[in-house]
Structures
1.
Amino acid sequence: MTALFALATSLLWGLADFGGGLLTRRTPALTVVVVSQSVAVAVLGVIVAATGAWSEAGARLWFAVAAGLVGPVAMLSFYKALALGPMGVVSPLGSLGVAVPVGVGLALGERPGVPQFAGILVAVAGVVLAGGPQVRGAPVQRQAVLLTLLAAFGFGAVMALIAEASTTLTGLFLALFVQRVTNVVAGGLALYVSVRRGGPALAPGGFPWRSLPALAFVGLADVAANGLYATAARIGPVTVAAVLASLYPVVTTVAARGLLGERLRAVQTAGAGLALVGSVLLATG
């Protein structure tokens, strides 16, 4: 079940990244973050009220608060990078954040078996190659790489924090709600500061009403992915869950190829194949 939940996490994160990257090409990234996460807050608020999850409140919620503070920085950096460079190049670099939760798992005493260790190496190498990473080129490309590396560390930190934020299903709902409320507050303050400094709050055409369904999907897919990852990390080894959950760049790359016509280079195709092999090794190890 760990592999199933983690792979579902990858699918949702990959689709959310694809949608977020498209939206930031016509709407300011901060607005995308705030609006999409506000939708998630509304939905989670209903779930928390319906399940009585408030009874699970405790000291662990500080992990959710920390994840909520780190998350907007990571998402903003990543969306800006996606707007600057091809998704198939930027997205795989974001998966390097897997080093954070894997490191936490190893520090807590997890020791993957030989097949799993091989799967970790193969999967991470495949994810990076799936984007045919280009660290040389125009200044825009270098800026996109730096933003992506910042986002990668943030994503890895969020994965590690949210996995520690709850021990029960209702507690997970509450933790995700607190995380998203913190996201909206932090992102809203950043948007306010940006507007005060002359930055745009909306696209030239005003509030993106037509994009609201896409914004809602991005927010809900992201929060569902967080919940699935937390579940996967709780019921199985964090090292396995983290690596499988970090295969989302392959989804983003394939979506960009299918919907935007971005060409896959030979190294990207090989990388996607390696990622698949690595996931099989992890799931069967």
Note: Residues 2-284 form one domain.
2.
Amino acid sequence: MAKQNARADALSLLLFTLRSGKLMAINLLKVSEIIPCPALTKLPESHPHVKGVATLRGHPLSVIDLSRAIGERPLADPNAGCLIVTEISRSRQGLHVQAVSRIVHCLSTDIKPPPYGAGKQSFITGVTRVDNTLVQVLDIEKVIHGIAPAPVESPASGLSVEDASLLAAANILVVDDSNVALQQSVHTLRNLGIECRTARSAKDAIGILLELQGTAQEINVIVSDIEMSEMDGYAFTRSLRESPDFQHVYVLLHTSLDSAMSSEKATQAGANAILTKFSSPELTDCLVVAARAVVFAER
């Protein structure tokens, strides 16, 4: 299986700065708009990283003090700056930043994993270079999870005996470069009494696939993030479909983006299904469908 020849996908990043001036980035597909910082209403007993609530076209918008949320110094003028309004993982929020720099276009292969030693406390999922300047890609899922962790409902009681048996027979690999998102999926599976393999990159996932090939633990269902450094979920899926050994593996692309927006590209890449993060019951339903497809394909 070719590890390095996957076609790269185009990616647009919005660059912004905090007080330190270092460049950070967020996938432009996660951004709905950029606005000057409006007047905020502070809510009692709110999380200390939530600056307050703004009203945007008649709807409330929680505003996150991004500097505090990722352990940086607060902005010199707490009332200046602007808001990056994001829509990810079924939620909408404003990120208060110092300034927005510009939009740059690159390839998914241009995004490299965080430097060794960045640690679990890091709020970045990758790094790249723009005009020879290091740019850190924000792990927005981790920021939001630290403020309002997504509830992970236990769906086990609703599973039929047949569905539970199907899931137990599947060998599942979860691939995600965000540790928060990875653990959410793993927790859902463990609530179902199912253990799975995990990987933090497509490269690591390919290694696991090759290692288990031909064994009783051979992977037949993959749950993969789309936005990953070096090789994204689309390229990873295409590489599987181009390999005779892995072209029949069931692939569920699990994304923090609106899945309707990404569904065409997912289909073109060869994915079996796509799902927006994060709903434990919906992930369970998708995994049951995947396990059923795998069982029928093996008969």
Note: Confidence is low (pLDDT under 50) at residues 2-6.
3.
Amino acid sequence: MTQEQLKESVEYLKKRGFETPEIGIVLGTGLGQLIDHIENPIEAHYNHIPHFPLATVEFHTGKLIFGTIEGKKMVVMQGRFHLYEGYDFVDITYPIRVMHLLGIKKLFISNAAGAINLNFKKGDIMLIEDHINLQSGSPLAFRNVSEFGNRFVDMSEPYDVDMCKKIHAIAIREGISIQKGVYASVVGPQLETKAEYRMLKILGTDAVGMSTVPEVIVANHLRLPVVAVSVLTDECDPENLEPVNIQEILDIAAKAEPKMIKLFRELIKEI
């Protein structure tokens, strides 16, 4: 990755009409309904954007969408990138750097995750308060990282405290049940074994997934305030573990998604 590559990506998007967005949003697996709320959308498919990776997972459509929600300009990433698709950390987080250069001031992230905390249930929303990086790498571990910001990034508060408080207050006001907890990011794509679920619980994990942490690290590198929520799509009880059903996970994500959309729309109004 070079500054010139980022500049070419940004210039292409600006020519398409992606002008001065205020907010960037990353949509997770099965969480694509938010795009229906975008007014005056302009689309740019990943395979047309210079230097962009291509989304390979069948339920990620792979495009950036620019438009307005609640009167604010934003760019929405429909389809994200994962280690398990064969990308490296720089590829995964390249779109975050592009959105930042386009002008976003806040970043919202969503994902689908499994509930390790057995007090949490399928369909719950979890506000991520902290995370554990179990992906064996960093999106800042490349030779010329100092050209893009400080090499050593403080992660004492990776998730913006003010936006987290606002989302929690919105959930209470709107009658949306919301959990708060620690998200662990693993490589995947295989799901965890019983022993691995037990390990995650010992580590203090409340939910586990295969994304989000690289993007959050880069957001902190860019000093870009970020908030993230998980839609909990399965219950990971090692003592009563059943074979995974991917379609059921997608169905639960779709059913819970309106709650996430409500939280994001209300947060957009308030910032």
Note: The mean pLDDT is 93.
